[in-house]
Amino acid sequence: MSATWDEFERLRLTVGVITDVEDLPEARDPAYKLTIDFGPELGTRRSSAQATHYPKESLRGRQVVCVLGFEPKRVAGFKSEVLVLGAYSDEHGVVLLQPDREVEPGSAIG
Questions:
Q1: Long-range contacts of 84-93 (CB under 8 A, 24+ apart)
Q2: In angstroms, rounded to a whole number, what is the distance separating the alpha carbons of residues 39 and 103?
Q3: pTM listed for this prediction
């Protein structure tokens, strides 16, 4: 199965900064509720993430790469508005993607 270029262009890959982390105890698999700031143009959005192997303190202030443009998804009753991208590793679990140097929140990935 493949996506069209038009479908890809409707999505927006963007850098955000995690500003708050809460447990999502209702989730089937351990997860966090993340609040992510995408700057003044895009505002703040929420996401669920199965990244509980990261201490909460290490996530606050961290830049992450996210996908905007999907319909919100309900995860254990929580409205997840963006997809936080990560690489799956047998050794490390989900490894969150981030720029290799700090950029402005809302910066597009191109």
A1: 84/34, 84/36, 84/47, 84/49, 84/51, 85/13, 86/49, 86/51, 92/53, 93/50, 93/51, 93/53
A2: 11
A3: 0.91
Distance CA 106, CA 110 (A): 12
Query: What token pair was written down for 95?
Result: 């490894």
* 61-104 pLDDT, tens digit each: 999 999 998 899 999 999 999 999 999 999 988 999 999 999 99
15-30 pLDDT, tens digit each: 999 999 999 999 999 9
The C-alpha angle 84, 87, 90, rounded to 5 degrees, equals: 135
